[in-house]
Amino acid sequence: MAEDLFEKLVEIGKRRGFFWPSYEIYGGVAGFYDWGPLGHLLKRRIIEKWRRYFVLMHQDHVVEIETPVIGPEKVYIASGHVEHFTDPIVRCTSCGRTFRADHLVEEALGINAEGLSVSELDRIIRERGLRCPVCQGELGRVETFNLLFRTQIGPYEGSVGYLRPELAQGIFVAFKRVYEAMRSRIPLGIAQVGRVGRNEISPRQALVRLREFTIMEMEYFIDPEDQWGSCPFFHRMADSKLPILTYEAKRRGEEKPESFKLEEAVNEGVVISPCLGYWMAVGMRFVEDLGVPSDSIMFEEKGPEERAHYSSQTFDQLVKVSRWGWIEVAGHSYRGDYDLSRHMKYSGQDLTAFKPYPKPIVVKKRRVVVDKAAIGRALKSRAKTVLEELGRMGEGELERLAASSRPVVAGVELPPGSLRIVEVEEKVSGRRFVPHVVEPSFGTDRNVYVALEYAYREVEGRVVLAFPRDIAPVQAVVLPLVENDEKLVERARMVYETLVEAGFTVYYDDSGSIGRRYARADEIGVPAAVTIDYQTLEDGTVTLRDRDTWRQVRIGADEVVDKLRRFIYDGARLEDLGTPVKP
């Protein structure tokens, strides 16, 4: 691809209504972009494609919800974001500009600084004598900056809230409600599409790094003791190829991924969970279906110092683009039970799942018996406080206390023999567990940009956006052969209205020569052009033109809805839809 492809996309994005910087009339604000009429349509179609792959094709196990954009502070304390969602920054002592420290080090020294600690970055800046890249002033100490957008909920001071930086926490907090509504079944996928905000220090790369953007995310809850049973559709993708660059391969200096069959990757431990591997394979197919060739996609495993605080294993799904090389379009993480366990701890609510046994079983269990009468006789007025404290203790804590030679509760020593460990038999119908979570998370805006870049063609001096047909923002254009013939215009309007009523997104264009109108439609990626000509008035047929081949066939005007549907959604070849028109 040409080196200036990004600039070409920026130009066409502004001119034809795909995207542009937000707040342009006020000079713009870094990290914010508008999606225009065509960009919005393209984005919606990509979201619907994602829903087909991740929700609708798995609807016996995956559901979709919607949760608030703003959450109370305690949610993000529990999730670890208040503590961990930070980036390192450094300020110039002369001009006052702030830079992301790891990026500054990478650009100045050409090394990978991702995951380095604040002290390591600070040491490198001092030892290598790095200075402000703008004014060459001295750099201050490296500090951490929290990326959460902070706000206040209501008029009450201290009622702190945050704009969500991801969709996951709304899903985790709602898990119990969704789990019960879905008849308490595991595995359970809970998906969500929505806006998020991250207060990036120095957003760059235009649409690739934004401060406000859309995420398509799913949390897939599984039984950690039944990993294979938690992925009942694994067989669909078992032979799929995954291009994976492992962490160990990166450490050896390798840059190219190795191709693994999904089943092979899981069995060899390259991917630690069949569910994680399965959703990676679905993600591979989804991105390919946006028009990206397989050799421009790979999964890069993140090392311990690179992973988020909640992750046991993470793969970034990368796509190669013209200006920035490999960029992340999705993250695939095994989050374990971190999130639900944390929210159980901070909320005091039970977020476990229950798995029934085929038949109840009898098990022997150790129980701690509290002799309340003995405690009452020995401790008198202090007995109530002690018994209340004992009532708040879990079985494990009680057992440790009972095993002690001198058990003390609430600062009071218990009388001998007041706690006894006994063995009892219980009939158990199942087991409770905290589900583990596999998360595929896609950045919508980045995937829209990727779709634009890989759709771009220059053919015989004109621009063509060759989107996959089902994500094209406008699906058809209706054209009367000439603009000033009332009969042709009337028939063209009838075809246009028919397609609109059938649910297609359609443009009507009668301005300029037919060649110029074809070029305008090609430039915005319209896959099909329906032309009404003088033969239409004679026999009721119209021409259907393919954007990618520029070939045409004649079909009946009354067949347009059916044949356009087959062309757009079923991938039908143009030649199979009608009679070829000679050039």
From TrEMBL:
Top-rank taxon, per record: Archaea
EC number, UniProt record: 6.1.1.14
Annotated Aminoacyl-transfer RNA synthetases class-II family profile domain residues: 4-468
Compartment(s) of residence: Cytoplasm
GO cellular component: cytoplasm
GO-annotated biological processes: glycyl-tRNA aminoacylation
Pfam family, one: HGTP_anticodon
Ligand binding (ATP): 198-200, 208-213, 328-329, 443-446
SUPFAM superfamilies recorded: Class II aaRS ABD-related (SSF52954), Class II aaRS and biotin synthetases (SSF55681)
Role: Catalyzes the attachment of glycine to tRNA(Gly).
Name under which the protein is recorded: Glycine--tRNA ligase
Source species of the chain: Aeropyrum pernix
Gene for this chain: glyS
